[in-house]
Amino acid sequence: MTRPGFDLSVYLVIGPEDVRHHSLEDVVALAAKGGVSLVQLRDKMADKQRFVELGRALQGVLKPAGLPLIVNDRVEEAVALGAAGVHVGQDDMPARLVRQVLGPDRLVGLSSSRPEDAQAADPQVVDYLGAGPVNITTSKADAKKPIAAEGVGVICRATSLPVVAIGGIQVADVPALVRAGVSGVAVVSAICSATNPESAARDLRQAVDQAKA
Fold first, then answer.
1. Among residues 106, 107, 33, which one has the least CA distance to residue 64?
2. Is the pLDDT of residue 173 over 80?
3. Which of 3.30.70.1150, 3.40.50.300, 3.90.25.10, 3.20.20.70 is the CATH number of 10-212?
4. What confidence tens digit (pLDDT) does each residue in 50-106 have?
5. Residue 158 CB partners (closer than 8 Å, separation 6+)
6. How many Cα atoms within 13 Å fall on the side-chain side of residue 195?
7. What is the torsional sign of CA 138, 139, 141, 146?
8. Is the peptide bond preceding residue 94 cis, with omega within 30 degrees of 0?
9. Catalytic residue positions?
10. pLDDT tens readout for residues 90-119
C-alpha cells in the first residue's frame, strides 16, 4: 500500500465544543506553529454540510504547514474532504470497512483501551492505534476507565503498530508514556483550553522530543 507518512508526536484532537479562548481555526494555526504534527477533527453533532465546511477551513490552515487532517468516525465526510484519513473507535464502523471505503492511500486509526483490541488490529488495515484514556478526561463523554501509563505500555507491547496515547494528558505525563512505548501523545483540552495554544503545543512537543532522545 502507498499510504502517506505521518508523525504522531503531538496529535491534536479538536472540535467546536473544545475551544475556549480562540476560534477553531486560530487554535489549529497556533498549535501548528507550536509543533503539533497531526490534527483530527471530531464533531459528532454537526450535520454533513457544516462538518465539511469546518474540515475545509482547517485544511486551509493545515496545508500550508504541511500537516494532515484526520476525520473522527465520519467516513463519508472524510471522502468528501479528501482528508488524510479517518480515526474510528471500537464501536464505530469496523476498520476493515473504513479501509475498503478509503482505499490504500489514506490513514486509518483505531482506538484501543485493551491489549486484546491491539492484538486484533490488522496492520494491513490499521496504521496506528490510539491507546487510553491515560487519565480521567472530561473531553469525551463516553470515555472508559483510565489505564495510566502502565496500561498504555501493555497495549504497546501487544502490537507492532505505532501507538499514540490519549486521555487527559499533560506535559508531566509524557516521559512515562514515551518509556511505555508510545510514538506520541494526543490531546484535546491541553491545547484547546489553553490561553496560549502555541505555547501549550510547544511544551508538549519539546517534552515528547526530549523523552524520545
1. 33
2. yes
3. 3.20.20.70
4. 999 999 999 999 999 999 999 999 999 999 999 999 999 999 999 999 999 999 999
5. 115, 116, 118, 119
6. 0
7. negative
8. no
9. 42, 111, 140
10. 999 999 999 999 999 999 999 999 999 999
